[in-house]
């Protein structure tokens, strides 16, 4: 599997650390309520299809990136710096 | 029998080798199989279940029968295919799965029990009685089953893993692959051409075809010579592309040294390649199918293509009086090749009623072979025709049931092949693997002309994708014989007709599976073990599913195939794991004091990847406890030195560093004064404790954070995530400096006295109070000093650049010893912190909150931080939660054990009465008792109560008093004094 880091280009997936769904970027406000926080911390989709995930280029530049990929075809549709998602 | 004038071997070089203790000679270029056949050795192995005598069936990596063990001791390698093992002087190979010898095998008795060992016998026979499984059935099965064995010793061979990159990977170097590689290479593409054989050319080496008016192998050599001369081409022989993976990644195994006994220093036996290719061409060829008929497994019966390969490539005829049986024109090609080489062809049995006749040999049309005879090898066959049965004497039967395109790699990414009726075979679905084109026989195109054309077309398509221009290519002249086949899977009749030779699966077994309602191909496979041997059904799966389709009244297309999975052919785990053994799997991290600690005989313990001294034994000390007690007392009374470098150290800089730390720690750091350190607690977003440590402010915009040893990597990733993902607005950056600084704890009442000798200034309580920090000059070296303590004593941690670590450790040790102190290790460090109730990851183990560890008030109410919201949710502060306490033994038993559980004194120690557990224990020489830290329901409200500790595993029960976890110096006077 090959992942494209926006800084470093296409690299072997062994250079990356996997975190999970990119939901982690949508942190609710402290007073958003129990349901919002429960969703944010615990509930995850398990899609057969397109998903957005967080990967960390640990063996490279240290960037956290959001990778959009298809869990069925394994096609990687794009990647974006996490710092640009919430900028 | 060697045939004069045939073969691509070097007859000037004789190669001696040994098989089963007997010496033979072959020629350079021979495989073990070709050399044994040349020496008229037909019996090469025994089957898995019935131990039936077996000879070689094929001439390639799909070989199911002729598996041998090569090498001795740690270099012993089982299940090497004789068809792939090249001979070299000194090669010693042994047959497998026989006892006491290949010729006379006692387990062959299994064959007589065959009626009881049919499909599903494992499931039926060994079900009852249950108690028999471990003691009786399993040992019997283990002895009888299995092919070659490992030596049980450590593997002494080296393996390597490597990466390669290219524009185009061409898999297989037959006519299609050679042509594809040539076209792409001429266009300037970076090409890797890989082939599993020692010599490239594929079937061009095995057939007598001409290409462009030259013998096929000559044409192949000319193409290879051109490719070899180009910088943009890499030819990889003895390299099997074994798997297709995502984004153009391919796994390949290169057998680097199996063809020689030389092991040049450091050279690997095998290399596991990860090849990343922008495009690929699969030109993997096809595999010939045997025909199932009664006793079709006798040594001497092999595929027709294999007979031609042995004849044309190695100059060996597997028999002197050959019969040929099948359902395509290939059988006539086989007959012509044999006759031209001067080998007698007794008969050609063609199942097709309209088969071509010949003036040169006898053709029996519409006939089938329905049986064979011979003791350890073929002596005769029985042929059935409309007119009746007849026996024909023969020592070799060449058979063909047609060809199966090698579609394997096209199925590795969920692709399913499609049934093509006119060739009675499965072919790849287009675009089954992104970026892969298929060409030639693997595509179901069997003529040489079609292979060459498709090779060119595949390269042109790939070049087009790559944005490169294909050169104009003329198709070389070659045969374009149509492929005429009449389906022929199994000849009807009594007896056992073998499908899977290695796993001993017969036509009857497959039919029985269908009768017992294992009708899905995946169920039939598992019930009969069809296709589950080392050849993974390459020789038998299609025939087996055709038999299943027939038995269930469905078509072959509807029945479908089982799933093709990597690797294409067997691969040693050692190759897959190359580079990841021993220190490659688990690198060792050493502190700058490592050598000094080892020199003092300190037993080293692992802390993550780090090695740390457990204790420092001194003369007269016979147990670790004696050393540990002494070291604890030394720190409490004088001064101790301990290397604390493995703690994670993260340098944090930027105008928003303080604001950032406020967000990742529960408590405030933006208000921390420059020159001060503070203990910090970090939560996960779910509200549970993640890590802890002290963070010092070295400047307005400069902090240095310490983490636990175990948490260092995770904290670093966490900080980067919180910054980049959640607070990219903050101007702050991080660098791990764990290995840049050597840091030593100097702990004990004499610590200041010791340091005052080393520093360029005098420390006092006013300028260096508890939790002060700052730059210092250590004997002229710029370092850092932190007045922090993990022992509860007046203590410091002193840091210098790592290159001065060993030297400083030495100096600290000597000065400490002068003051009545010395070194202390992990055991003493543990006792010192337990006496003070300080926590480690034993306590913050992922299921405890700040409230649980008595630090609820450290979650600042003035600001938001990671984990704060969830830490306040319902239930996390409710009565009954297990919270941190100290425990002291008070009854007869003085033993405390970490992991033991706590119960009320009078309660029965069962799960439903569980009240908590111990996390850390140690013997305190200071208080002269065992001490424990643990979690107890409502613990802090129960000081003075007696609870019962029960360790069910070790059978220990101890009554304990619940106390404040700070056992020693609860006011903290010592740390400030
Ligand atoms: Zn990167």
What distinguishing features does this structure have?
heterodimer, A: 87 residues, Folate-binding fold, four-stranded antiparallel sheet, 6 strands, B: 977 residues, alpha+beta, six-stranded mixed sheet, 24 helices, 22% helix, elongated, binds zinc ion
Instruction: Give the low-pLDDT segments of chain B.
Output: none
Helix content of chain B: 10-25%
- Strand residue content of chain B: 25-35%
Count of discrete alpha- or pi-helical segments spanning 4 or more residues of chain B: 24
Q: Describe the main β-sheet of chain B briefly.
A: 7 strands, mixed
Assess the beta-strand content of chain A as a share of residues: 35-45%
CATH topology of chain A: Folate-binding fold
SS elements, strand count of chain B = 49
The residue ranges of chain A in which pLDDT falls below 50 over 5 or more consecutive positions are none
Ligands and ions found: zinc ion
Oligomeric state of this protein = heterodimer
Rounded to the nearest angstrom, the distance between the terminal CA atoms of chain B is: 96 Å
Task: Report the C-alpha radius of gyration of chain A, rounded.
Answer: 14 Å
Would you kindly provide a written description of the structure presented here, covering whatever features stand out?
The complex is a heterodimer of chains A (87) and B (977). Chain A is mainly beta and 87 residues long. Chain A is 14% helix and 38% strand. Chain A has a single domain (2-85), classed as 2-Layer Sandwich (Folate-binding fold). Chain A has helices at 34-41, 82-85; strands at 2-5, 9-12, 17-21, 50-56, 64-70, 76-81. The model of chain A has no long low-confidence stretch (mean pLDDT 95). Chain B has 977 residues and is an alpha+beta fold. In chain B, a hairpin with a 2-residue loop joins strand 1 and strand 2 (22-28). In chain B, helix 7 (304-314) runs parallel beside helix 8 and helix 10 crosses helix 12. The mean pLDDT of chain B is 94. Chain A binds chain B through residues 1-2, 10, 12, 17, 19, 24-25, 27-28, 30, 34, 37, 40-42, 54, 56, 58, 62-64, 74-76, 81-87, and chain B through 163, 245-249, 274, 276, 413, 434, 685-686, 717, 720-721, 723-726, 728-729, 864, 868-870, 873. Zinc ion (ZN) binds at residues 5, 7-8, 57, 60-61, 63 of chain A.
